[in-house]
Amino acid sequence: MSMHRTLVLVRHGQSEWNAKNLFTGWKNPDLTPEGIDEARRAGKELKKLDLLFSVGFTSALLRAQHTLDLIFEELGQSNVPTVKDRALNERHYGDLSGLNKDEAREKWGEEQVRLWRRSYDVPPPGGESLKDTVARVVPFYVQRILPPVMRGERVLVAAHGNSLRALCMVLEQLTPESVTTLELATGVPIVYKLNADSTVASKTVLEH
For site (Transition state stabilizer), what residue positions does UniProt give (predicted)? Predict the structure, then answer.
């Protein structure tokens, strides 16, 4: 069983607001038809690896939950227990939520919006920075996600760009500077194998 310390991270498929170039955060749009296809393709890629999952984790938001459900459906594993928790939610964009990104740049300026989107510790008005997101994601990872992985179970997490960047920061020991440049494509599984000390033994990105 020790060889099965497998953790798979998947960013949700394209959402309706991704398609409209809107800041989404804790708002709750569903997947687009393209997003549904991306989630199904992720399931098909994982099926090639013959992975049997013990548990799934996702956020309190529909786009991530729908992605997890579709992946498990493709795997023929719809009976896998799942945990939904807002600790894995996308970072909260505060006053930017629901705004078009181009309109936000016009209102606040290119540099200010870039700082809110890509800095580590500068939050948008009324929202969370990536540092704030890390502060809620990492304890949940340590307490809930990591223990089954270390018991030799295979765990699937379907979440969001920033909550998954927070997980990648821990797993890959990224600095606040390097994590800000990390981009995660929608619907592309990242398969980690962990060592006995919970460090990463290998990382595989399953590009379609």
Answer: 160
Quote the pLDDT of residue 1: 44
Identify whether 4 is a catalytic site residue.
no
pTM: 0.96
**Is residue 90 a known part of a binding site?**
yes
Alpha-carbon span 145 to 205, nearest angstrom: 20
- Candidates 45, 74, 90, 128; catalytic one: 90
What domains lie within the chain, and their CATH numbers?
A: 2-205 (3.40.50.1240)
* 67 appears as a binding residue in the annotation: no
Instruction: Give CA 114 to chain center in angstroms.
Output: 21
109 among annotated binding-site residues? no
- Place 3 in a pLDDT band, splitting at 50, 70 and 90: low
Q: Count the Cβ atoms, other than its own, within 10 Å of residue 86.
A: 14
Contact 163, 9 (CB under 8 A): no
User: Is 181 assigned a ligand-binding role in the annotation?
Assistant: no
Let me know: does 88 contact 157? Beta carbons within 8 Å. Answer: yes
User: Partners of 23 in the beta sheet?
Assistant: none
Residue 101 vs residues 30, 62, 79, 97, 112: alpha-carbon distances, Å: 19, 22, 39, 10, 12
What's the rounded Cα separation, in Å, for the pair 199 and 35? 31
Amino acid identity at 170: V
74 is catalytic: no
- Segment (H or E) for 171: helix 161-171
Check 12, 45, 66, 160 and give the catalytic one.
12
